[in-house]
Write a structure and sequence with these properties.
The protein has 221 residues and is of the alpha/beta class. It has two domains: 83 residues, Methyltransferase, Methionine Synthase (B12-binding Domains), Chain A, domain 1 (Orthogonal Bundle); 119 residues, Cobalamin-binding domain (Rossmann fold). It contains nine helices and five strands. Strands 2-1-3-4-5 form a five-stranded parallel beta sheet, sandwiched between helices. Helix 8 links the parallel strand 4 and strand 5. Helix 1 packs parallel to helix 3. The protein is globular. It binds CO-5-methoxybenzimidazolylcobamide. The site of CO-5-methoxybenzimidazolylcobamide has 35 residues, from helix 3, helix 4, helix 5, strand 3 and strand 4.
Length: 221
Amino acid sequence: MSNSKDELLSKLKSVIADGDSDQAIELVRQLLNLGVNPLEILEKALVTAILEVGNKWVKNEAFISDIILAADAMKAAMEILKPEIVKRGQSIKKLGRVVLGTVEGDIHDIGKNIVAIMLEAAGFEVIDLGVDVSPEKFVEAVKQYQPDVLGMSALLTTTMLKQKETIKALEKANLRNRVKIIIGGAPTTEEWAKEIGADGWAPDAITAVEVVKKLLGIKDK
Ligand code: B1M
């Protein structure tokens, strides 16, 4: 079992890197049928595949089109994994509502989508605003959905400035104190979060869930 599991994980990683969505879906189904934990599939095959292609791109060993295809295959695989992850973490009572989005000018959504899945699995209601979300749209969403937490993801050093702008826009709209704010994304740091007046920061999706719980005073049983 462990051999075929490892083989399938490695095959899945390479078909995602090759951008083959159909094969990726098929392999995820096979791994789930073998009883492999969906989080293990996510980390060991999906995330490693996209980072490997990304590293090749940085070294001029891959084209941006390769990353786009790999990201599409990863998304197709995630569609199958998501319900499994959420099912395993299901809690009866919703712990709170989180509005989430990638900031304006930024279309990276793989990390944000993983954060959304983990939050849902932990029992939060997640309203995902998608990518390229302007400060105005975040402000409107806080008015409309009245979330407990607002989450902003940014993957570019240029777009992380939009996290700051959004907090300023919330202050201007007198909404800042109505919502806790968590930020994340590869170029962000805890210092940046403090500097812009966010309430929390997380380097990865698992920590994001812990931080959101902490911000809302939710203790694990
Ligand atoms: Co882009 N890209 N990209 N890219 N891309 C990076 C980010 C880059 C670091 C690559 C590099 O040069 N080394 C670089 C940014 C440099 C910088 O600003 N410092 C870069 C660049 C330059 C660009 C373009 C400008 C390239 C171009 O067009 N010339 C362009 C910009 C487009 C735009 O947004 N306007 C661009 C485009 C793209 C693609 C479309 C091809 C594709 C995105 C596809 C998609 O997302 N649908 C892409 C990808 C895939 C990457 C890399 C290779 C991988 C990003 C990723 O998905 N990581 C990336 C290089 C890298 O990171 N090594 C790169 C995996 C993911 C699981 O991790 O997103 O970090 P991550 O999320 C983690 C944590 O950060 C955290 O939890 C997640 C899960 O554990 N987290 C949060 C994330 N959000 C959070 C929110 C939270 C809390 C935690 O609270 C709310």
